[in-house]
Amino acid sequence: ALDHPHVIELKGVVMNEREQKDKEPILSSLGLVFPKMECDLEKYMKKASEMKELNLLRGSVIKSYVAQLLLALEHCHARGIVHRNVSPQQILLSPDGMLKLAGFKYAKSFVGALSTTTTDEAKVSPKPVFPHYLAPETLLGSPLRSTAVDLWAAGLVMAEMLNGGNVFLPGDSE
């Protein structure tokens, strides 16, 4: 389990079934229940850039958020999970300054320092949708999975915060 103060907690699952005539019911919808968080880091950085006089992205705040993000990633990596989609949109914030890593849609397990994605896995494993935060090896289609891809993305998130909320490596494609 990924039970950690800086990893979003799954509170519950809500399933709705649809009846079928003379057949077993089928699942018609599935909902995951998570704790309510104030905003994501992307929205916070946008607010900080619009309200510079409040100094929302001061050094102590950045240091705290980066430390919390690295603790969350360390916890995931120690349990054999690579997030693969670390970005400001996947980092949730509470009003009291608590950070929670969320968005595990693209997460993969690994064994040891590196794991290899099989050809079949690669066919059904789409790349995350935020190319600004993808490590070079992911962009180049490497079948290796390692914790380095998460650390690369965490570094870019930190650079973005230090850059006043502006994307550190801007571009419109991979």
Report on the architecture of this protein.
The chain is α+β, with helices and mostly antiparallel strands and 174 residues long. The chain is 32% helix and 22% strand. The protein has helices at 41-50, 59-78, 119-124, 136-139, 148-162, and strands at 12-20, 23-33, 39-40, 81-82, 91-93, 99-101, 108-109, 114-116, 144-146. The strands form four sheets. A three-stranded antiparallel beta sheet has the order 3-5-6. The chain is globular and about 65 Å long.
Keywords:
globular; 174 residues; two-stranded antiparallel ribbon; alpha+beta; 9 strands; three-stranded antiparallel beta sheet; 5 helices
Rounded to the nearest angstrom, the distance between the terminal CA atoms is 33 Å
Which H/E pattern describes the elements? Answer: EEEHHEEEEEHHEH
As an assembly, this protein is single chain
Q: Bin the strand percentage.
A: 15-25%
How is the main sheet built? Answer: 3 strands, antiparallel
Q: Uncertain runs with pLDDT below 50, 5 residues or more?
A: 118-124
Share of helical residues: 25-40%
The total beta strand count reads 9
Overall pLDDT score: 86
Radius of gyration: 18 Å
- Structural class, judged by helices and strands? alpha+beta
Which strand order spans the largest sheet, edge to edge or round the barrel? 3-5-6
Enumerate how many helices there are, as a single number. 5
3D shape: globular
Q: SSE layout and pairings?
A:
Layout: E1 12-20, E2 23-33, E3 39-40, H1 41-50, H2 59-78, E4 81-82, E5 91-93, E6 99-101, E7 108-109, E8 114-116, H3 119-124, H4 136-139, E9 144-146, H5 148-162
Antiparallel strand pairs: 1-2, 3-5, 4-7, 5-6, 8-9
